[in-house]
Amino acid sequence: MSRRFADLIEEAATVPVDGWDFGWLAGRATERRPSWGYARAMAARMALADTAADIDTGGGEVLAEAERLPRRVVATESWRPNLTLAQARLGPRGVHVVAAEADRLPLTSARFDLVVSRHPVQARWPEIARILTPGGRYFSQEVGPASVFELSEYFLGPQPEEVRNARHPDAAREAARAAGLRVVDLRSERLRMEFFDIGAVVYFLRKVVWIVPGFSVERFAPELEALHRQIEADGCFVAHSSRFLIEAVKP
After folding, report:
1. Which residues is 77 bridged to in the sheet?
2. Model-level pTM?
3. Which PANTHER family match (predicted)?
């Protein structure tokens, strides 16, 4: 084990990974952003809304980018460390941050004319339809099928087709329609990612835990050392994220 490999692993294995700020990866990894500019488009909709909800807000990082917020905004989050971060970040702006429940959003029915979510854990379409006012709008950027599967399959081997095709935008469209919503926009893109050192890979997999479920440095030590050598030889490891934008209106 080289000293450089050991140092990179130790650093990435101990740095905190709470929240959805990926600033630690600056200069160590890159990801092309979707052409639709979710944060900017979300902020424009927030400026026109009267009541809004942000589902799975993470640490509140994306919602906090909106310069103007509606009269009433509620954000939900299920992971306790992120919930604490979101409350500290959004509370001073008057956003009420609440803990999410497993099957039901802890929000009043027909209350919100705008519901947004960037990378929801799972879009609960009947619940989204329930909390929207008539004429209300849902606006979301989601993780699409086979996202970063180059990393997933490097560590886990080839994945079955049903796993590769999970989170497909066509399935989201059908689920939205089944919940009584009218889909007015649906776009998808695959986006190049580059990891320039093995520390960036470890940090990313610790933070985005569904890419390699059960990931740990100890479990995948041989694979990590081999990937370190590959990155040193090639200059980077290339993967591709999958994203789709969906916007739906409640009649």
Report:
1. 99
2. 0.91
3. METHYLTRANSFERASE (PTHR43460), METHYLTRANSFERASE TYPE 11 DOMAIN-CONTAINING PROTEIN (PTHR43460:SF1)
Q: How many CB atoms lie within 10 A of CB 250?
A: 22
* CATH of segment(s) 3-249: 3.40.50.150
Among candidates 175, 192, 202, which has minimal Cα distance to 241?
192
Query: Token digits for 153?
Result: 């399959």
Query: How far is CA 146 from its chain centroid?
Result: 14
The values of phi and psi at residue 113, to 5°, are -85, -10
pLDDT for the residue numbered 220: 98
pLDDT at 19: 82
Neighbours of 42 (CB within 10 A): 23
Tell which residue, 87, 99, 65, has the closest CA to residue 19: 87
- H helices of the chain, where? 3-14, 38-48, 80-90, 125-131, 149-156, 161-164, 169-178, 198-207, 221-234
Where residue 146 falls (left for φ over 0; alpha for ψ -120 to 50; beta otherwise) is: left
